[in-house]
Amino acid sequence: MNSVGEACTELKREYDQCFNRWFAEKFLKGESAGDPCGQLFKQYQICVQKAIKEKDIPIEGLEFMGPSKGKTENSS
Amino acid sequence: HPWETVTTAAMQKYPNPMNPSVVGVDVLDRHIDPNGKLHSHRLLSTEWGIPSIVKSLIGTSRTKTYVQEHSVVDPVEKTMELKSSNISFTNLVSVDERLVYKPHPHEPDKTILTQEAIISVKGVSLSSYLEGLMANTISSNANKGREALEWVINRLNAEIEEFTASARGTMRNSMAAAAFVEK
Protein backbone atom coordinates (compact mmCIF):
# COMPACT_ATOMS: atom_id res chain seq x y z
CA MET A 1 0.00 0.00 0.00
CA ASN A 2 1.39 3.36 -0.94
CA SER A 3 1.65 6.56 1.00
CA VAL A 4 -0.16 9.74 0.03
CA GLY A 5 3.30 11.13 -0.58
CA GLU A 6 5.07 8.95 -3.09
CA ALA A 7 8.45 9.55 -1.50
CA CYS A 8 7.20 8.35 1.87
CA THR A 9 6.12 4.88 0.82
CA GLU A 10 9.30 3.12 1.88
CA LEU A 11 9.34 4.81 5.30
CA LYS A 12 5.70 3.95 5.65
CA ARG A 13 6.32 0.27 4.91
CA GLU A 14 9.07 0.00 7.48
CA TYR A 15 6.97 1.70 10.10
CA ASP A 16 3.92 -0.42 9.25
CA GLN A 17 5.85 -3.66 9.61
CA CYS A 18 7.16 -2.57 12.99
CA PHE A 19 3.76 -1.39 14.15
CA ASN A 20 1.80 -4.44 12.97
CA ARG A 21 4.16 -6.76 14.77
CA TRP A 22 4.05 -4.74 18.00
CA PHE A 23 0.27 -4.42 17.80
CA ALA A 24 -0.45 -8.12 17.47
CA GLU A 25 2.28 -9.45 19.73
CA LYS A 26 2.34 -6.86 22.50
CA PHE A 27 -0.44 -4.36 22.54
CA LEU A 28 -3.36 -6.76 22.17
CA LYS A 29 -1.90 -8.93 24.90
CA GLY A 30 -1.84 -6.03 27.30
CA GLU A 31 1.83 -5.11 27.11
CA SER A 32 1.64 -1.64 25.75
CA ALA A 33 4.70 -0.23 27.45
CA GLY A 34 7.68 0.42 25.24
CA ASP A 35 6.64 1.08 21.69
CA PRO A 36 9.71 0.15 19.63
CA CYS A 37 8.60 2.02 16.55
CA GLY A 38 8.97 5.60 17.78
CA GLN A 39 11.99 6.50 15.68
CA LEU A 40 10.57 5.03 12.49
CA PHE A 41 7.31 6.81 13.12
CA LYS A 42 8.97 10.19 13.51
CA GLN A 43 10.82 9.90 10.24
CA TYR A 44 7.73 8.72 8.44
CA GLN A 45 5.68 11.57 9.94
CA ILE A 46 8.06 14.27 8.80
CA CYS A 47 7.72 13.00 5.26
CA VAL A 48 3.92 12.69 5.39
CA GLN A 49 3.34 16.13 6.87
CA LYS A 50 5.37 17.65 4.10
CA ALA A 51 3.44 15.73 1.45
CA ILE A 52 0.10 16.80 2.90
CA LYS A 53 1.10 20.45 2.90
CA GLU A 54 2.38 20.17 -0.63
CA LYS A 55 -0.80 18.57 -1.86
CA ASP A 56 -2.95 20.96 0.08
CA ILE A 57 -5.08 18.27 1.69
CA PRO A 58 -7.47 19.96 4.10
CA ILE A 59 -7.29 18.00 7.33
CA GLU A 60 -9.14 19.57 10.18
CA GLY A 61 -8.53 19.35 13.85
CA LEU A 62 -5.52 17.11 13.76
CA GLU A 63 -2.35 17.77 15.57
CA PHE A 64 0.64 16.04 14.18
CA MET A 65 2.15 14.57 17.28
CA GLY A 66 4.82 11.99 17.56
CA PRO A 67 4.14 8.92 19.66
CA SER A 68 5.71 10.25 22.82
CA LYS A 69 6.55 13.76 23.67
CA GLY A 70 5.01 16.55 21.74
CA LYS A 71 5.03 18.47 18.57
CA THR A 72 8.19 19.13 16.72
CA GLU A 73 8.16 22.14 14.47
CA ASN A 74 8.94 21.44 10.89
CA SER A 75 9.49 24.08 8.33
CA SER A 76 8.37 23.23 4.85
CA HIS B 1 -12.91 -15.09 13.98
CA PRO B 2 -11.80 -14.00 17.41
CA TRP B 3 -11.67 -10.30 18.17
CA GLU B 4 -7.86 -10.11 18.24
CA THR B 5 -7.65 -11.55 14.74
CA VAL B 6 -10.29 -9.20 13.35
CA THR B 7 -8.73 -6.16 14.99
CA THR B 8 -5.27 -6.99 13.72
CA ALA B 9 -6.66 -7.48 10.21
CA ALA B 10 -8.61 -4.22 10.40
CA MET B 11 -5.39 -2.32 11.13
CA GLN B 12 -3.94 -3.77 7.93
CA LYS B 13 -7.07 -3.68 5.84
CA TYR B 14 -5.61 -2.10 2.71
CA PRO B 15 -4.79 -3.12 0.08
CA ASN B 16 -7.42 -5.74 -0.56
CA PRO B 17 -9.28 -6.76 -3.71
CA MET B 18 -12.69 -5.64 -2.41
CA ASN B 19 -11.62 -2.02 -2.09
CA PRO B 20 -9.60 -1.40 -5.23
CA SER B 21 -10.17 2.31 -5.16
CA VAL B 22 -8.11 2.82 -1.99
CA VAL B 23 -4.70 3.78 -3.26
CA GLY B 24 -2.97 5.24 -0.25
CA VAL B 25 -3.05 4.93 3.52
CA ASP B 26 -1.07 7.04 5.94
CA VAL B 27 -0.95 7.29 9.69
CA LEU B 28 -1.19 10.91 10.72
CA ASP B 29 -1.08 10.36 14.45
CA ARG B 30 -0.97 7.48 16.81
CA HIS B 31 -0.82 7.51 20.58
CA ILE B 32 -1.93 5.61 23.64
CA ASP B 33 -4.20 7.64 25.89
CA PRO B 34 -4.02 7.66 29.71
CA ASN B 35 -6.60 4.81 29.78
CA GLY B 36 -4.40 2.55 27.69
CA LYS B 37 -6.44 2.84 24.50
CA LEU B 38 -4.63 3.13 21.21
CA HIS B 39 -5.80 6.04 19.06
CA SER B 40 -4.86 6.21 15.41
CA HIS B 41 -5.67 8.92 12.94
CA ARG B 42 -5.29 7.81 9.37
CA LEU B 43 -5.69 9.37 5.99
CA LEU B 44 -6.95 7.20 3.16
CA SER B 45 -6.74 8.34 -0.41
CA THR B 46 -9.08 6.89 -2.97
CA GLU B 47 -9.11 7.07 -6.71
CA TRP B 48 -12.36 6.49 -8.53
CA GLY B 49 -11.20 5.50 -11.98
CA ILE B 50 -11.76 8.80 -13.68
CA PRO B 51 -11.02 8.58 -17.39
CA SER B 52 -7.51 9.67 -18.18
CA ILE B 53 -8.66 12.42 -20.49
CA VAL B 54 -10.44 14.05 -17.58
CA LYS B 55 -7.36 13.59 -15.45
CA SER B 56 -5.19 15.31 -18.00
CA LEU B 57 -7.57 18.26 -18.01
CA ILE B 58 -7.96 18.77 -14.31
CA GLY B 59 -4.68 17.34 -13.07
CA THR B 60 -4.13 14.13 -11.14
CA SER B 61 -4.00 15.83 -7.74
CA ARG B 62 -7.69 16.59 -7.97
CA THR B 63 -8.93 13.14 -8.86
CA LYS B 64 -8.33 11.72 -5.42
CA THR B 65 -10.81 11.89 -2.62
CA TYR B 66 -9.67 11.56 0.93
CA VAL B 67 -11.13 9.86 3.94
CA GLN B 68 -10.11 10.67 7.46
CA GLU B 69 -10.32 7.78 9.91
CA HIS B 70 -10.02 7.77 13.69
CA SER B 71 -9.77 4.41 15.39
CA VAL B 72 -9.66 3.52 19.07
CA VAL B 73 -8.58 0.08 20.27
CA ASP B 74 -9.18 -0.90 23.88
CA PRO B 75 -7.25 -4.10 24.57
CA VAL B 76 -8.77 -4.54 28.03
CA GLU B 77 -12.45 -4.13 27.15
CA LYS B 78 -11.80 -5.64 23.71
CA THR B 79 -13.46 -3.06 21.58
CA MET B 80 -12.33 -1.41 18.42
CA GLU B 81 -14.14 1.63 17.16
CA LEU B 82 -13.58 3.24 13.80
CA LYS B 83 -15.02 6.55 12.73
CA SER B 84 -14.39 7.81 9.27
CA SER B 85 -15.57 10.70 7.22
CA ASN B 86 -14.68 11.81 3.79
CA ILE B 87 -12.84 15.04 3.29
CA SER B 88 -14.71 16.68 0.51
CA PHE B 89 -13.27 19.59 -1.36
CA THR B 90 -16.67 20.87 -2.28
CA ASN B 91 -18.28 20.16 1.09
CA LEU B 92 -21.33 19.11 -0.82
CA VAL B 93 -21.73 15.50 0.19
CA SER B 94 -20.26 13.98 3.29
CA VAL B 95 -20.31 10.40 4.45
CA ASP B 96 -19.63 9.57 8.06
CA GLU B 97 -19.23 5.99 9.11
CA ARG B 98 -18.92 4.37 12.48
CA LEU B 99 -17.91 0.77 13.04
CA VAL B 100 -17.48 -1.06 16.32
CA TYR B 101 -15.88 -4.50 16.66
CA LYS B 102 -16.46 -6.48 19.85
CA PRO B 103 -16.13 -10.12 20.82
CA HIS B 104 -19.37 -12.06 20.46
CA PRO B 105 -20.95 -12.22 23.95
CA HIS B 106 -21.76 -15.94 23.71
CA GLU B 107 -19.28 -17.33 21.20
CA PRO B 108 -15.74 -16.30 22.10
CA ASP B 109 -14.32 -17.25 18.73
CA LYS B 110 -16.48 -14.78 16.92
CA THR B 111 -16.55 -11.02 16.59
CA ILE B 112 -19.57 -8.76 16.23
CA LEU B 113 -19.49 -5.70 14.02
CA THR B 114 -22.02 -2.89 14.25
CA GLN B 115 -21.90 -0.35 11.49
CA GLU B 116 -23.69 2.89 10.80
CA ALA B 117 -23.38 5.45 8.06
CA ILE B 118 -24.74 8.96 7.85
CA ILE B 119 -24.89 10.64 4.51
CA SER B 120 -25.46 14.36 4.39
CA VAL B 121 -25.83 16.83 1.60
CA LYS B 122 -24.89 20.37 2.59
CA GLY B 123 -25.38 19.53 6.23
CA VAL B 124 -28.90 18.17 5.85
CA SER B 125 -29.25 14.52 6.72
CA LEU B 126 -30.78 12.45 3.94
CA SER B 127 -31.64 9.45 6.05
CA SER B 128 -35.32 9.47 5.28
CA TYR B 129 -35.19 10.59 1.67
CA LEU B 130 -32.68 8.09 0.35
CA GLU B 131 -33.53 5.28 2.73
CA GLY B 132 -34.39 2.60 0.20
CA LEU B 133 -31.58 3.37 -2.18
CA MET B 134 -28.84 3.69 0.37
CA ALA B 135 -29.88 0.72 2.49
CA ASN B 136 -28.91 -1.64 -0.32
CA THR B 137 -25.61 0.06 -0.97
CA ILE B 138 -24.68 0.23 2.68
CA SER B 139 -25.51 -3.36 3.43
CA SER B 140 -23.60 -4.57 0.39
CA ASN B 141 -20.70 -2.39 1.51
CA ALA B 142 -20.92 -3.96 4.95
CA ASN B 143 -20.66 -7.39 3.35
CA LYS B 144 -17.77 -6.17 1.27
CA GLY B 145 -16.05 -4.96 4.43
CA ARG B 146 -16.45 -8.37 5.98
CA GLU B 147 -15.12 -10.07 2.86
CA ALA B 148 -12.19 -7.69 2.83
CA LEU B 149 -11.24 -8.59 6.40
CA GLU B 150 -11.69 -12.29 5.65
CA TRP B 151 -9.23 -11.84 2.78
CA VAL B 152 -6.71 -10.04 5.00
CA ILE B 153 -7.05 -12.71 7.71
CA ASN B 154 -6.35 -15.45 5.17
CA ARG B 155 -3.35 -13.54 3.89
CA LEU B 156 -1.98 -13.11 7.40
CA ASN B 157 -2.49 -16.80 8.15
CA ALA B 158 -0.65 -17.77 4.98
CA GLU B 159 2.22 -15.50 5.95
CA ILE B 160 2.34 -17.01 9.42
CA GLU B 161 2.40 -20.55 8.04
CA GLU B 162 5.26 -19.61 5.76
CA PHE B 163 7.06 -18.01 8.67
CA THR B 164 6.59 -20.97 11.00
CA ALA B 165 7.80 -23.37 8.33
CA SER B 166 11.04 -21.50 7.87
CA ALA B 167 11.87 -20.55 11.45
CA ARG B 168 11.07 -23.42 13.75
CA GLY B 169 11.48 -23.48 17.44
CA THR B 170 11.94 -19.83 18.30
CA MET B 171 9.98 -18.02 20.97
CA ARG B 172 8.58 -15.41 18.61
CA ASN B 173 7.39 -18.12 16.30
CA SER B 174 5.15 -19.66 18.93
CA MET B 175 3.76 -16.29 20.01
CA ALA B 176 2.80 -15.30 16.49
CA ALA B 177 1.24 -18.68 15.78
CA ALA B 178 -0.86 -18.50 18.93
CA ALA B 179 -2.18 -15.07 18.00
CA PHE B 180 -3.35 -16.00 14.52
CA VAL B 181 -4.01 -19.67 14.13
CA GLU B 182 -6.80 -19.84 16.68
CA LYS B 183 -10.11 -19.64 14.79
Automatic annotation (TrEMBL), chain A:
Entry similarity comment: Belongs to the TRIAP1/MDM35 family.
One GO molecular-function entry: phosphatidic acid transfer activity
GO CC terms in record: cytosol; mitochondrial intermembrane space; nucleus
Catalytic reactions of this protein: a 1,2-diacyl-sn-glycero-3-phosphate(in) = a 1,2-diacyl-sn-glycero-3-phosphate(out)
GO biological process: phospholipid translocation
PROSITE patterns: CHCH
Domain of life of the source: Eukaryota
Protein name: TRIA1 inhibitor
Assigned keywords, A-Z: Disulfide bond
InterPro entries linked to this entry: MDM35_apoptosis
Automatic annotation (TrEMBL), chain B:
InterPro entries: PRELI/MSF1_dom, Slowmo/Ups
Domain annotation PRELI/MSF1: ranges: 1-161
PROSITE patterns in UniProt: PRELI_MSF1 (PS50904)
Keyword Coiled coil among UniProt keywords: yes
Pfam families per UniProt: PRELI (PF04707)
Superkingdom of this protein's organism: Eukaryota
Cellular component terms per the entry's GO annotation: mitochondrial intermembrane space
Keyword Coiled coil attached: yes
Keywords, ordered alphabetically: Coiled coil
Chain segments annotated as coiled-coil in the UniProt record: 146-173
PANTHER family: MSF1/PX19 RELATED
Name of the protein this chain belongs to: PLD3B protein
